[in-house]
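lol ok so funny story. i was supposed to be doing the assay writeup but got distracted and ended up predicting the structure for this chain instead. priorities right. anyway since i did it might as well share w the group, maybe its usefull for someone
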Amino acid sequence: MGETLQVPLSTLPARLLVLPHRSLTRAGLWLFLALQGMAMAAFAGLAAWRGNVFAPYFAVLDWCVVAYILSRVWRRSASGEVVALSASGLEVTRMDGSAPPLRFHPYWVRVESRPGRHFGWASRLVLCSHGREVEIGKFLNEAERALLARQLNELLAQVRRDGVESGNGQV
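and the output, tada:
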């Protein structure tokens, strides 16, 4: 949970920002690509000097492919999820816009940890209610996924407890 907002458990509404790990900055990415390009240019120049005249062309093509793929991976790593919880609902919004926001009633939503789809795959953290479900935190490791599940369960318990105490909630 690279940048999960630490929410005091007494604060509602709560928003959890769940982002994948992103240890490489934009400047670091471009520095890496520049150093990689210099290394490729040096070896391609050496190969051309030894008689392989196509090595520089291949090195440029290779650098372009590597730069394109790494920049796509870097951009994709910025997509996370916002989980907003209030007394009226729990909403999961994907930051990349790949799916419309899903809204659940806090009294009926369940936080489930399910085994991976295949043997050896990571477990899945799923919010489900009334036949609808959404997987959250796909990019988290097991410990972070368990921490997120615990935080969500504690926040949901607080919402349910506050609703019952105030007489507004129906359990």
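Helices lie at 26-49, 55-76, 142-166. Residues 142-166 form the longest helix (25 residues).
back to the writeup now i swear
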